[in-house]
Amino acid sequence: MSAFTAETVSTGRLDLLPLRVGHAAEMARVLSDPALHTFIGGTPDTQQALHTRYQRLVAGSPDPAVSWLNWVIRLRAEDCLTGTVQATISPSGSGTVAEIAWMVGTPWQRRGIATEAALELVAWLGQTQVQAVVAHIHPGHRASAAVAAAAGLTPTDRHHDGETEWRLILHQRNH
Hints:
Elements: E1 9-10, E2 14-18, H1 24-30, H2 47-59, E3 67-75, E4 80-92, E5 95-104, H3 113-126, E6 132-137, H4 142-150, E7 154-160, E8 163-169
Helix pairs in contact: 1-2, 3-4
C-alpha cells in the first residue's frame, strides 16, 4: 500500500483530480498534439494506449516504497480537462523525494495553467513528509523551465538523459 495518496486539490481556477481510468478518452484528445513530445520524445498515446497506461498508474507502483500520484487538471470555467501533473515519491539517501512532471494540452498553453497546477502540487507536497521536489527538464524547454522556477525549483548541475535536474528542498531531514 502506498504511503501517499492523490487527493482532489483546488486552486483559483483549477481542480487537480486524482487520475481515473475513465479520464483516458478525454485526455487522449487533450494530449493529441505531436508538438507536446518535442522535448520528451515519443508520440501521443491513442485512447486505448492511455486507457492501458492509466490502468497501470491507478494500480500503483509495484514497489511499496514508491508512490505514484497522478492528477488530471480540470479548468473549472470551461469544465474540461487540460493536462496532467504527477509526482513519483520515493525514498533516497537525502530523505523522501518527489519527482514531479506536468503536461498541458496545446490549446490551453500560455494561460498559466501548468504554473498554477505545479505551484499547487508543490504546496500540497510541502504539507507531507516529502523533503525535496525534483523535476527533469530539457535545457531547451524554456516554458517548462519557467514553470519549474515559478514553483520554486532551481536548476542543479546534475543531468540525466540530456535533461537538467531542478530541485527544491521542502524540509530538512531530521536525523
